[in-house]
Amino acid sequence: MSDKGETEDNERQKIKHLDTSVVNRIAAGEIIIQPANALKELLENSIDAKSTMIDILIKDGGLKLLQISDNGHGIDKDDMSLLCERFATSKLSKFEDLESIATYGFRGEALASISHIARLSVITKTKTSPLAHKAYYLNGKLANANFKPDVSNIEPKPIAGKDGTQIIVEDLFYNVPSRLKTLKSKNDEFSKILDVIGRYAVHTDGVGFSCKKFGESYQVLVTRPTMSLTERMRTVFGPEVANELIDLEIKGNDPTEEEDYAAKYGLIRVSGAITNSNYNNKKKIQPVFFINHRLVTCDPLKRAINSIYQFFLPKGNQPFMYLSLVIKPQNLDVNVHPTKREVRFLYEDEIIEKISAKVHQLLSSIDSSRKFKTQNVLSNRQDLKRSNDEFAGLSREDTLNQSISQPAKKYRQENKLVRVDAQQSKLNTFLTGQTDSNYHGQMTKEFTQPKTTQEGIPGSTENEYIEPGLDTQAKANNSVDLQSLNFTFDSQYQVSEKKRMQVNLESILSLRQEITDKVHKPLTNIFNNSSYIGIIDELRRLCCFQFDVKLFMCDYSAILYEFFYQAGLSEFCNYGEITLTEPLALDKILEPLYDSSLNDEKKLQQKEDVILKIMHMKDMFREYFQIKLTYNEDGKASILTLPLLLRNVKPYLSKLPYFIYRLGSRINYEDEKECLSGILKEISLLYVPESISNEISLEDTTSISDKREQTQEYEKQVNVVKRNELDHVLEHTLFPTLKQKFIATDKILGSVVQIADLPGLYKVFERC
Fold first, then answer.
1. Do residues 207 and 279 share a domain?
2. Residues 752, 182: Cα–Cα separation, whole Å
3. Which of 415, 475, 525, 682 could bridge 762 with an S-S bond, Cβ 3.0-4.6 Å?
4. Cα–Cα distance between 712 and 735 in angstroms, integer?
5. How many structural domains does the chain have?
6. Measured in Å, how far apart are the chain's first and last C-alpha atoms?
7. Residues in the chain, pLDDT under 70
8. Cross-strand partners of 59
């Protein structure tokens, strides 16, 4: 038995080769520790490719998606089979080349390592190639589109693309669950990625960088290729650092120096910037060190410079430093650390001593004045209550000394005091117990009276309003009372199990990008921090709102038109659905527009042609816009549903004839982008509030004076109800949503005007 046990132990202790896949995965884990390491390797590849603009897209801290696009020289199709092979590189061919290496990459391990722990795809195009090519990689080898090693379908596919390379890393560490558990939150990983991008953006002159989160409309970080060092510092590290910088420059072969550091120690040049002694910062910012354009950590250099700052900064304050060292390549060993974050170079002590002496010289030369942040000392409350008798025995000099030692009382500036907090809700918001539809019902209940509708659909003029339930002769006159239709608002909302659709149509993505490109940030900030005041002209559709100490007037129809268009674009294919109580025939809806007097003036298209064109596209309307069109029992084209853009906001059905007519006559269905944009604009118009006229219209048939007065009074009351309802919706629904979601663009600049501000009013009235 003992002999058998010894035999089993010997078998277990035998040395054997690890499987190649295990070796590669272990090596990849040493090189790619976190998403920021993968991004650093990809950034360096893009810079090596002579790119002038690099765009980065991040999702879930780089774990779900890490995409980097550049406009460099690209990769030849013939080289794509070796792109992710380990130790395949174009940077060197023999070990001696390391002595003169001047590029970031040289081992050929970055992409290989990433392909072993993530799903990697590459799109690239050279200037000489007519087409771009896309390839997929798994474990260092070419794979098919499903990331399977299918030998028959792994060749790079020709696609449309622009010059440069786009590398897409998905599901990082999907096969290393233990590594995923060690990573911090997604926001922490994104912060590390942003830090790496910022450091390369500061150092790399002539290259622009942009970074955004997946699904966000704004860029988190943007630098342009033409920015100076100070501008890049300001963008990345803020004005506090940029305003207190001192340029540092050392030339190794400076003829004014006693020693030639270039010839003796291999130091060619040191450049960068450090903060002066006025920089007051308690938060430590890691120094930015580049040696031969490689981002590294150099603790000896960091300690030496910090020791110099101890003589110039108050205790507890931290400096900021950015230094770029250029050393002869033969004096530098870059192959020290798997992630290349550390390097070794000859004559380290001499070079660090030279840099420290230069830092001391610069700080000493400007140490003639100092700025300090001050804080008022709060007096004891009992000191303020002392009686005047306690000062009776003080001499004039004592009183003067005491007044100097105490800080002057700080008075608040009434003319600059913001009296309305944009983030604070109004009290009546909490007292409102009804929903919007109930509110409308209670407001109109008191004033509802029977009224005969005119022939056709009332509201053939856009501004005309029809009260619910006033349809006593609608059928007799072959008309449809659109406002009498019921909707499922508020408590009648039904939540469906419909899964949210991911929209990848290029036309929709392009339309969304157009809004992003035209964003007006100051105006967006004004709307995001505004406080609604009220309607000032319901006929011209003007209202007022406050921002800070300024009062603005805006055309709310133009603002809401743009807002509803953005809402429709954002929720494309995912709208709610308004179901009509019964189908409405399109020819009945269009009938008022084709009245003989109107038709002669407008020269409208044939009604049948309009309906035919709409019904021809009914499948698209149903799938994209929740507009359900069908044929009723009589074989007539009818509409069943409308899109719901925003909860508690309903479309204006008096505009429905115009909406239907424009869908059949104003939309270019031949061009996808123009078609979808046009339909979204028409839906937006359907939701924009109508003008409320103050004029009283009298019917010719009214001959009795009492009846005329009764009609006038009723119409006045209806206008009051409509105005109050609109004001209620603007204050409690639309403006709160605008503050959260609206992106102001250049096109609405003319629709917003500042009409007053508090300092100006104080100059006139001397009070508020």
1. no
2. 51
3. 415
4. 33
5. 2
6. 102
7. 1-13, 15-30, 87-108, 335-340, 367-497, 596-602, 694-708, 765-768
8. 65
